[in-house]
Amino acid sequence: MKLINIGTDQQIVVVLSGAKGENPANGNLQVTFNPSKYALGGYNLLNSTDILGDVYSDLSQTLKENGFNLNVESSRVQRIDITKQAEMPRMARDYMSAYDFLQVKYARDITRTKVNSDYYRLQPNTKKSSWQVCAYDKEMAFLSMAETPTAEKKLSRVEIQPTNLLRNELRFMRQAPCKEFAFSRVGQTLYSVDQWDYIYSSFLQKRMFNKIGQGVQLELPFNTEIQSIIEFESQQAKRGLFDRVLKHYGLPTILKYMSVDDLLSLFSLYYNKTQLNDLKNQVGTLIKNSPAFRSKDNFNGSLIAELQHHFISPNYIKKAV
Fold first, then answer.
1. Predicted model pTM
2. DSSP labels for 155-169?
3. Per residue in 76-92, pLDDT tens?
4. What is the DSSP string of 58-127?
5. I need a labelling partner for 174 at 20 to 30 A (CA). Which of 191, 199, 278, 292 fits?
6. CA dist 302 to 127, 206, 254, Å?
7. pLDDT tier, 218 (very low <50, low <70, confident <90, very high otherwise)
């Protein structure tokens, strides 16, 4: 038996499986819910165990009112998602290519899937994955799942634009990895927020960023980064391709890594010689007239280093390697 949408505004999924044999106690009750959505709605994340405790109490009461007498905190954890999100220096979709180049530990057994331009997933190469790491543009994902009629009408008229709100989710998909890496009982999640951060940061550092702390994998070659952006933007539209690519980084940052001629050579598949010469003149004018080229504060970073900076707490980087 599966019941969906218990409660007024929250979505709680309850699955009741039949008992094995004659003893009714052999049956199973599975409750699935998102504590952050339950308490806050939207795409805000919980950052307090006090609020989480209130969620469990309210959930227990809601289930009881619907005929399910369950002590939520003593229940076993079958799956848990530990999540961080950050406003990144670039658009969220720009970071999808970085996950292709992460030197993942046990990489032979890892499947990398670029679900679409704004969603990337890594997981063990088994029929029943024990964990996943998923990265995606959270604002786009949230808007695309709008549930209210007003939101649907707005979204039907407006094309959702990519943003710089990147969510990175660590998902333990089965009971065994939950017990091994995180929590075996729901109530253990109330211990401290620092414990969540330790689980999240240490797992990602060990599995995803394990070479960075040793100075081996500090950044992607910039040509690789920008080539990935060019290829993606060219699939969207050829018109205005050069200007759209410049917006991803800004010309001052690009020219820290390569010459104007090297930059234009990356566009040789999309522009003829006359057009490339016009673009060279355009760049020359920008260099001459823009005060940005006289500033010492231009952003200079790599995609992988930015991911590590925003999603792994600094005190776990060296310890976890």
1. 0.67
2. HHHSPPPP-SEEEEE
3. 999 999 999 998 877 88
4. HHHHHHHHTT----GGGSBPS-EEEEEEEE-SS-GGGGHHHHHH---TTGGGEEEEEEETTEEEEEESSS
5. 191
6. 34, 20, 12
7. very low
